Structures are given as structure tokens and as C-alpha cells.
Amino acid sequence: MLAAPAPAQELRGHGGPVRAVAVSADGQFALTGSFDQSAILWRLSTGSAEKVLRFHQGAVNAAATVNGIGFATGGEDGRIALWQGDANEPARVIEGHKGQVSALAVSPEGGSIASASWDETLRVTSLADGSARVLEGHKGPVNGVAFAPGGAVVSSGYDATLRIWPAGDGPARIVTLPAPLNGVVVAPDGEIAVAAADGRLRLFGPEGEARAEIEIGQTPLIALTLSADGATIAAGGLRGQVALIDRKARAIRATLLGPGLPVWSLAFLPGGKELLSGGADRLVRRWNAVTGEHIGTVVPRAGEDVLAAFQGERGAQVFRACAACHTLAPADGNRAGPTLHGLFGRRIATAPGYAYSDAFRTLDIVWSKETVAKLFELGPNAYTPGTKMPEQTIGSAEDRQALVQWLEKVTR
């Protein structure tokens, strides 16, 4: 009899930080979202990418499992997409937010999806009829959302408040904390855990009463998840550490050490014995959540510096500000911005596989040394209205010239 294949150790395919991870209820599939504007559907038994999903105009920040449908993604464009099977297009799109969607949660009975946004609101949308309840009160980006037993909604925000919204009408119970808050989870018994920018995990009762505080590290906690049985909390930070916390014991029982880069997303597999982590190095790693050991070898380095070979070239040094969003080689694909391979002579908004905004598609620009230099002389907002590119200019004409000459050489 042939042995079953070992599960894939790493999932490789994204061109940017992996901002979101969700696992199907049967543990066969995962959906990941990235700063590269794509979501990828993975078969976990083989580690193969079943489908690359491109819909959002901007980073895919959130993912959730929706039983009976498949997965949901939330994006920088303020939209939520529901994906069914391996379809290329969403089965349904939910709109309403005026800022990027930062977190998603599905109600225990599966009838509603809650979304947190940087527009300072939460929306609880019925999956049956699309009606939405809007929850307002946060004074800044809302970074986390979860459902509590009984239908209450719990949220965490940059305004350093934890808010417990009743299932019916009525004001939220507000708990103010010493630091901005990121992720939030709620256990089956109603206990709330929230990750804070001061590196501490804080636990509260169902009514917001403080119960415990656990120091995870000195840097912000930016990812949080809970095993289905509520026994184990996983919290990830900016320096790449992931702490596995025994919730009942209020103690860290293992620390997962990756390559030292931020961990942006976490998800347990069914049963709670394995964990997926998505990081700034574009990889999804698989961990044994019992022993704390990585499944496969972790290479303890910050990643390859693709510009090291061009040390001393002024154009390469100027390009460093662009390297997080754009690749140069054909094999590296798109990230948050399109690949620059083959840039010169290419009409704007035509790089293969990249989701451009509608405004960008209407522009009449062909990229040349002159037009690229003009982009950085005037700034993206002025030269290419409708762009999602960060605003930056290069004031020195010599630096602009060095950049375009270097790009012409390395993007052929």
C-alpha cells in the first residue's frame, strides 16, 4: 500500500506579504490574501495552488470561511467578495464600506458576515437578503471583529478601545486600553482576547471585565487566531514570533520562530493541531501547534536582496523605495504594483494579470524614459489620477535620470 503524501511544508505563490489566511471546515483547502492584490485557493494535501483569484483593487486584507459557500475576502477597495468552488469570479459582492476592509468574521450559525473597516465602522450583513446593520463609534481604523455566543459583535480599534455590541439595539460596552488594538477573537465560552500594539495579549469576560494580561513581546501584535475548541490562542508579531497560549492556564506553552519578518495572518487547521502563518516574506508556513515545531526547515534570513548585485549604482539605490511593490524579473510576477519587466514601450494598465483601477485604464500613456521621469517629477496623483500608488516624487533631476536609465537596463 502506498503511503499518503506528506502535507506541503510551505505555500509559495504570492508576490507580497500574506495578509490573510482562512481554512475550510474540512481542512482540505486554504484561502490566502496578499498585498499583491490576489487571493490564492490552495489544496493543503499537496500545497498546490488550485486557483489565483483577482478581483479586489488593492491589497486583500481579510479572509474567512463561509460554510455552504466557500470563502470570503475583504479588500483595500472596501468590498467583500464571496467565492464558491473554484470559480474565477465571485459568486457575490458586498459593498458599503468607504475604507479598506481590515477583518471579517462569520456568525456561528453562518447567517451573517461582520466586517471591520478603516472607515471607522463595522457592518453586519445578512447573507440571506443582503441587509446590513452599521455599527458606528470607533474613532479611527477598526482592525478586528468577532462574534460572541448569542450574537453580540466584538470589535477592536486603533483608538485603543474594545467594544462589545449587543445582538439587538443598544449602545456598545466600551473598554479603553493603554495601546492601539489589532486582532480580536472570542472563545466558545464568551471569553474575549485582544492583541495590542504594546505586545500584550489581554483577556476579558463576556461583559468586558478584565481577566488577564500576558506579555508576548516588546513589539506590536498584528495577527491573532483561536483554535475551534477555544483552548489555544496564537498571536503573531512584527518580529516574526508566534506565541501559542494555553488560554485556561494563561501561559505561553510554545513560541514559533520564523525568519524574523512580520507575521500578518494566522489560522488553525481543524482539530487545532496544526497552524498556518502568513508572513512578510510572501510565504505561508505550516506549524505543529502541539510541539511548536515548523513542518519543514525555516531559513533564518530576511530574504534575498535583489538589488545587492547593483551596489554602487545610483539608479538601483533610488529604486529601493519602489522594491516593496514592484518586481523586475519575469518570474517574480506582480506584487502590490505590476511587474516592471518589459515596462518600456508598454501602454499603461496593460501588464498581464494585474487588476488595474478603471480610472487607470482610461489614461493615454506609453511608458518611456520621458514618461517615467515625468511620473516622479509631478507625482503619481497628479500624473496618473486614480492611482493607488503611494505618493512620492523625486526632486533631483539627476536621480530621476539615473532611475530611468537603470530601469531601462534591468527590465528588458
UniProtKB/TrEMBL annotation:
WD repeats: 11-52, 94-135, 135-165, 256-297
Keyword annotations of the record: Electron transport, Heme, Iron, Metal-binding, Transport, WD repeat
SMART domains assigned: WD40
Domain of life of the native organism: Bacteria
GO MF, one example: heme binding
Stored SUPFAM superfamilies: Cytochrome c, WD40 repeat-like
Keyword Cytoplasm: no
Cytochrome c domain location: 310-411
Signal sequence coordinates: none
CDD domains attached to this UniProt entry: WD40 (cd00200)
Pfam hit, one: Cytochrom_C
InterPro entries per the UniProt record, alphabetical: Cyt_c-like_dom, Cyt_c-like_dom_sf, Cyt_c_1A/1B, WD40/YVTN_repeat-like_dom_sf, WD40_repeat_dom_sf, WD40_rpt
Name this protein carries in UniProt: Cytochrome c domain-containing protein
Species this chain originates from: Bosea vaviloviae
Origin organism lineage: Bacteria, Pseudomonadati, Pseudomonadota, Alphaproteobacteria, Hyphomicrobiales
